[in-house]
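Repro:
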Amino acid sequence: MVLENITYFQILGKPLIMYGGILTLLLLLFTASIAILNKKGIHTIPFQWHQRMAITTIIFALIHGMLGVLAYF
């Protein structure tokens, strides 16, 4: 019951889990763009940030997935 309340907490009329999914997708795209830009020789963002962002993306994806699954238990 508590996780369901957190998962479906309304922010601007949309559930929290939707914003979590959007944030996770944006983190994934940003992580990939770091690797792609560095491979092309554009070093605006140092490559060491790729690993940091990958770890952050995995953490957000796990939280997003757990909220989605555990809301039904």
